[in-house]
Design a protein that fits this description.
Strand content: 25-35%
Shape: globular
Strand order of the largest sheet: 4-3-6-12-9-10
Helix content: 10-25%
Number of helices: 16
Distance between the termini: 35 Å
Radius of gyration: 28 Å
Structural class: alpha+beta
Length: 832
């Protein structure tokens, strides 16, 4: 059961020479050992204690069964990592040679050729050390000693004058979810999470470059080139040269020794603006920065930039205070989810394309990068730029109060400067947010209980220093004119302003056990968190549990449920609206469609409330291990029912139906930024397809709108049809047909018939098959069984009587027969 933990990072050493700058990546010949039992063994870097031990078969798979409990000793030990590398005399002739460490997790000491270099104590910082005088011609050795994160956190937390909410994790600048969360395991790794490299340079070091949009419209853009430099040569003539859109612009650089932030303003005529997914093109301009010394290029960097303006509008209105993003002068409704790190062990590929592809296919335009995880890689944000996925970026603080001593705040300040400056080059960054739920927790979760008045004041003042001074000042100084938001949410659901101001995390659903319908009526200005748990597919569960443990009460399943009431709540919500699960596989199916139907019902309510509500981000998009969680996309990339249904709920044009006793109301939402011609058909029919009433409407939907379109008289009260009929909406725009079913009663009361689903055709494709299905009766939530090697798109879909639906089966199998496909629908559970 180790296949999915196979390391996918290639081990190599790279050497790059570029106009006097030479880099050597130290990703070869790494070894590790437990510090108190020196037994060096080879390992892959980037990596960590767990990945190294797994490679050498020293620990069992942490994700399997309840193995997690048996390997906690790893985080209690100190660990050493070392590598040897060769340097030639030519390299040593460079004026400066720095050791660059962009990912040291977390507290460690570094030694080069037995000489102490210094300490690192922040997993989110880029550590740079001058090593020129310590390097040898020929062989060199780098040694890094990592201290136990668990023991260090214990000792630092014990020294606090007052024990801070959030417990020991808050004292370390390390991914907070490593200490355990209600979606993942406790795995406090130590290690090297990004490639270490040597960087040799003369005269000038180009550390960062970006282009910021000051103002922009279709006619002209005011732009600002920002450079971060280290100047050593103050005697020569230094210039910066920008290549962009066929232009070459040159700017002088002031000859001042040391760190320098350099900015130059310029204009671009007729710019092609960058837009979020679904609202326009993701235009990106290739750029190249050259640093010249006496007209000779000595450093350069190439990157792409998007021209756009993004502003959070939070201002008084007749309801309270707005919360929406104005992008290139247009109000954009944000559709998406909360993103967590995709692997707590860092063993999966770091390529972000697959996960961002899921976001795009699901009609997302935003991901919120949650503050308990980590800042993502350049390639992640670049992929978001290319695909129009806006990023709500939390700083890495979550659900706790953090120290306010000068050492911690200085560390936090440098971290913020480095991360904001690094990410300012990406067009996708929409917002910087100080923390996740710290403000709400302090004011409404009882954190202040048993803390003296004096200490309360001190803790709150420390909060103010970090989240209302250091972080917003850093955003103002270094970001691409991004807005800053102190805490998500600013007002908790116990506050009267929860609905009328700012963003909201509404956990009345799930934590407070409210029905899904309650959140349809409790609409905030911007919903940045809400969710409901589900089990992953059976193919994923079988990766961590044996056949005889396929039960919620087994050791393996209980260890993969990290919420204390999770299994109880799953069953409780299923039984409200769906039949009782008779076995484990039926539980998975009913749990997933409960999640999908409930969450998407709320998403549709958010969208209908536009422009009062201007965002819907559900918790959560993805998983960090194969567990039971709120995700729509599981650890292996498998789509749950939620992900399939979210794709429908986030369609750019959405029609909804609401039946009262005497009429049927049709609502339409459009996220297109231009008027759109639409054909609509409205059917009230039984599950066999016999139509009681039909209406057609053709017309133009206003841009960026939400409105009540039709109110159709129909006496639902008189006719006893709630258990036998449903509303079918079918609409067409831009040559694309869509449909949505709306039901008149709870799903466990529907009198569904055997749909008699049949396979019409199977066609071979380059990566699988196209399967066309049809049915005689309504088939509600059809699931085609998947295994570890096959996926179906869509899945968990509704199949209307007499209609054909084409399904894409992605598989590496060469043959697919009718007998290979097993399908179920809600009929199999309601009537059996």
């Amino acid at each position: 059961m180790k296949s999915y933990l196979t390391l996918s990072i290639t081990c190599f050493i790279s050497f790059t020479s570029l106009f006097g700058q030479m880099q050597i990546a130290l990703t070869k010949n790494w070894f590790y050992t437990q510090a108190d039992t020196i037994q060096w063994q080879a390992c892959t870097i980037p990596g960590n204690t767990y990945t190294a031990l797994l490679e050498n078969q020293k620990i069992p798979n942490p994700f399997y069964g309840d193995n997690e409990k048996n390997i906690q000793w790893v985080s209690e030990k100190n660990w050493l990592f070392k590598t040897k590398f060769d340097i030639d005399s030519k390299y040593l002739k460079q004026d400066n040679i720095h050791l660059e460490c962009p990912g040291l997790d977390t507290d460690c000491s570094l030694y080069l050729n037995n000489q102490y270099l210094g300490k690192a104590n922040n997993a989110f910082r880029h550590w740079t050390i001058d090593v020129k005088q310590l390097l040898n011609v020929g062989e060199n050795e780098l040694l890094i000693q990592f201290n136990s994160a668990s023991k260090l956190a214990d000792s630092l937390y014990a020294l606090l004058e007052t024990k801070l909410p959030g417990e020991k994790r808050v004292v370390l600048r390390k991914p907070q979810f490593h200490f355990g969360w209600d979606f993942g395991p406790v795995l406090m790794s130590s290690g090297i999470t990004d490639a270490i490299y040597l960087n040799a340079w003369n005269s000038v070091k180009l550390k960062a470059s970006s282009i910021h949009t000051i103002t922009a419209n279709d006619t002209i853009a005011m732009l600002r080139l920002n450079l971060a430099l280290f100047i050593q040569d103050t005697l020569s003539e230094l210039d910066a040269r920008l290549h962009m859109n066929g232009q070459i612009l040159s700017f002088p650089i002031q000859k001042v020794y040391g760190q320098q932030q350099v900015s130059f303003d310029f204009t671009l005529e007729n710019p092609k603006l960058w837009w979020p997914n679904g609202t326009g093109e993701q235009n990106l301009y290739p750029c190249k920065i050259e640093i010249l010394k006496n007209e000779t290029i000595i450093a350069e960097k190439s990157f792409k930039t998007g021209i756009r303006t993004i502003t959070l509008i939070h201002e008084p209105d007749r309801f309270g205070k707005s919360f929406y993003f104005l992008i290139n002068g247009k109000k954009i409704f944000c559709k998406g989810a909360n993103y967590i790190p995709p692997d707590i062990l860092y063993t999966q590929t770091l390529d972000p394309v697959s996960i961002i592809k899921t976001a795009v296919e699901s009609n997302f335009n935003m991901l919120r990068i949650w503050g308990g995880g980590r800042y993502e890689s350049d390639s992640f944000y670049q992929t978001c730029d290319e695909n129009g996925i806006l990023i709500w970026q939390d700083f890495m603080y979550a659900c706790g109060m953090y120290p306010g001593d000068s050492s911690f705040l200085l560390n936090a300040s440098i971290e913020a400067e480095e991360q904001v400056q690094r990410l300012s080059q990406f067009a996708c960054i929409a917002l910087w947010c100080g923390n996740n739920e710290n403000n709400e927790g302090w004011h409404r979760w009882g954190w202040q209980f048993l803390i003296s008045h004096e200490n309360k004041e001190r803790i709150w003042n420390d909060y103010q220093k970090l989240f209302n001074a250091i972080l917003p000042n850093t955003v103002r100084k270094y970001s691409n004119l991004n807005s800053y938001w102190e805490s998500s949410p600013l007002f908790g659901r116990g506050d009267d302003k929860f609905i009328s101001e700012g963003d909201a995390h509404d956990w009345g659903l799930w934590h407070d056990e409210m029905p899904f319908e309650k959140l349809e009526d409790r609409i905030p200005r911007f919903m940045s968190e809400f969710g409901f748990q589900s089990l992953p597919p059976i193919s994923t569960i079988k990766q961590f549990a044996s056949e005889n443990e396929l039960d919620l009460d087994s050791h393996s399943l209980r260890n993969h449920q990290k919420h204390p009431r999770g299994n109880k709540l799953i069953n409780q919500y299923i039984n409200r609206d769906f039949p009782e699960a008779k076995n484990f596989e039926s539980l998975i199916y009913l749990n997933q469609i409960t999640q999908a139907e409930g969450i998407c019902k709320i998403i549709r309510a958010h969208r209908k409330a536009k422009p009062y509500c201007m965002g819907s981000l559900y918790w959560q998009f993805n998983d960090c291990w194969p567990g039971i969680s709120w995700s729509g996309r599981d650890y292996f990339g498998k789509w749950k029912a939620l992900q399939h249904e979210v794709k429908n709920a986030f369609r750019p044009i959405l029609f909804t139906a609401n039946a009262n006793e005497m009429d049927l109301t049709i609502h339409v939402v459009s996220d297109f930024l231009e008027p759109t011609n639409v054909e609509l058909e409205i059917l009230i029919q039984d599950f066999t397809g016999n139509v009681l009433k039909s209406e057609k409407w053709n017309g133009t939907i206003e841009e960026n709108s939400s409105l009540e379109l039709l109110k159709i008289p129909f006496n639902f009260k008189k006719l006893d049809i709630r258990e036998t009929h449903y509303i079918l909406l079918k609409w067409k725009y831009k040559n694309q047909w869509n449909s949505q079913c709306y039901f008149l009663d709870k799903f466990n009361k529907l009198k569904l018939n055997d749909p008699e689903i049949a396979i019409d055709t199977i066609e071979k494709t380059t990566n699988g098959f196209f399967i066309t299905l049809k049915s005689k009766q309504l088939a509600k939530s059809v699931y085609i069984y998947e295994d570890a090697t096959s996926s179906f798109f869509p899945n968990y879909f509704d199949l209307n009587p007499g209609e054909f639906k084409k399904i894409h089966c992605i598989t590496n199998q060469n043959n697919l027969n009718n007998t290979d496909l097993k399908m179920i629908s809600l009929f199999n559970f309601i009537n059996n």
